[in-house]
Amino acid sequence: xxKIFVFILAMIATTTYAQELxxxxxxxxxxxxxxxxNMVPKHRYTTWWGNELIRTDxxxxxxxxxxxxxxxxxxxxxxxxxxSGMNLHHLYNITFPVxxxxxxxxxxxxxxxxxxxKTKKEIWHTDNNFNASIQASKFNYTTRATAYVKxxxxxxxxxxxxxxxxxxxxxxxIVYGQSVHRDxxxxxxxxxxxxxxxxxAFYRMDQSMVTDFPLVNIPELDWKPAEGxxxxxxxxxxxxxxxxxxxxxxxxxxxxxxxxxxxxxDAGDPTDRYFTNIAWSPDNKIIYMFELNRDQNDCRLVxxxxxxxxxxxxxxxxxDKKYVEPLHPITFLPWDSSKFILWSQKDGYTHLYLFNxxxxxxxxxxxxxxxxxxxxxxxxxxxxxxxxxxELSPIQKNIFIVSLETGKRTLMDDNGKGWHTGSLSPNGQxxxxxxxxxxIPSNMAIVNTENGKCTSYYKxxxxxxxxxxxxxxxxxxxxxxxxxxxxxxxxxPLNFDPKKKYPTIVYVYGGPHAHNIDARWHYCSRGWxxxxxxxxxxxxxxxxxxxxxxxxxxxxxxxxxxxxxEMKDQMKGVDFLKSLPYVDANRLGxxxxxxxxxxxxxxxxTYPDVFKVGVAGGPVIDWxxxxxxxxERYMDTPQTNPExxxxxxxxxxxxxxxxxxxxxxGLNDPxxxxxxxxxxxKACIAAGTQPDFFVYPGExxxxxxxxxxxxxxxxxxxxxxYLK
Length: 724
Fold this sequence. Notes:
By secondary structure, this protein is α+β, with helices and mostly antiparallel strands. The protein has five domains: 2-38, no CATH class; 44-128, Thrombin, subunit H, CATH 2.40.10; 133-222 and 231-329, Methanol Dehydrogenase, Chain A; 334-463, TolB, C-terminal domain (Neuraminidase), CATH 2.120.10.30; 473-722, Rossmann fold. Helices cover 16% and strands 35% of the residues. The protein has an eight-stranded mixed beta sheet with strand order 37-38-40-39-41-42-43-44, sandwiched between helices. Strands 12, 13, 14, 19 and 20 form a five-stranded antiparallel beta sheet that branches. It starts with a helix and ends with a helix.
């Protein structure tokens, strides 16, 4: 009787505890949700003041003892605003440009100021009122000059506030100082100051020959036209170079602040060429950049005289039967200006190589069947470098110190597990190691690279404590080639019962330069997956061949026939699911966005008897309508690969649609233009099949703000309605 009583009490306690747990909602789990900011693991923001570690927060700024983690306040937001007359709302973005001097660089949008917090005196400032309408900007601390683009024209304003307009022909056809080549090849800007801040290299892009895609702006609901102004929607054309069609022409200019002259690099005819990864020599006399042909299979590192623009020479050339993809500028050794580090995938994996300035390869720095993922900096004392790589596991990222002399790699993060992101001190002696593991939301440690000592600095609380949470698992299956290991993530329904059969959703991306599974918190599961698992669905996510960080052969297997090998691998995942007793094979769904939208539509129409429900967001339908740089890298041109383009097109498959498919796009998508979705709808109409369609007016490729929550409510409801 006593045992029964204890059991009953335990059951009551368990039931009571379960009742006390809160359920996660999309407002908690989606980045556009009203409570999302409270539900992500907290993090501490740090920066370097020379070799001193600084923590920045909303209200206060601290110096951190690197050996103990103890913090000492430097100044507060209230005081720095009071002393400087600035109007900062937080201290996250402040920087400390001069080692050993109590000087902080402040920017409140209207003014930029160098301020001494010890003497409480302004050292220098410049007005930034132009920031409200600029299209690009780049500040250089050394000369305190700012390059910026406003009304399509390139300007440079010096430390005294003197503004010089460098161009007069800027327009939507002639673009200065901004990202070119559709943000491919590692490009994310168009302004490049020399090391001494006296010269500025910049992109000039002529896109007058590129066809406009006719996007349309729909007025906001509360917009009222001025008297005499039309209520009609306005055109918002996007210069869009489609595969096989005319692309823009790029040149590189150089402005010399001392002479006031602008010259252009003598790189020859820019037609059907890509210029990327601009780098300055340590003495500021030479500009280096990678030049790539339109086929993207011939890459050259070329040097130019920064004074007159004349070509000096070709230092390196790399060719490939498929494609070469330069993503990083060269980096010179701080102790030897005649040597530099170059990234390459030429041995089959992304690794680092040491060259001299004559273009002679001195050694391969890193080597193995793994990839270098990031370069953190130098340890000048020991002549070594810090890198991040997945050497320990394809789903991990770990920090290593690598000797340039011997090539020896030393693990230099807190635990050798999970996903680590490092910040190296300028002298290379300390690393701030921010990391997650599948069970750790967010930790930070300070690592002494001299002796490997790790000091725990911060451990975030689990933001989901007190909420119901499903189960997250990770494993591997064999790819369709029968050899390659593929990693998957599985999110099991809340209160999972292996005796039940669950409706299952395959979430897919599958394209290049992305992956879904890594050793972060919950195996990097998306909030929507958790939400659906709480609603009784099982989620399955597989990184197929063609995705990133697994080497060249793994990535290039999809060359000239996107979607084919990827689907073979995803169907191996389906076979695995069908082997599990708790997966209901008659209730399989699929969802993805962008390349994942392409994969979703492809799977629904290639395997119409397998997938019952699909939601395809921003889907590529036919690769001949995608942009030149990305599309031709992986598919060649429609003219040279007509069979490949025909086989990858989803238009002929529209007739195969049996299940429920919803297509969702942003009306103003400049990446996967609406022509894709609209053409597929036309094909479905012609074939007599019945997809569903939803559009977000005014939204680009991805939904912004709270509209993202609305989007995921819609996606979820579609599965609730049709995959019960």
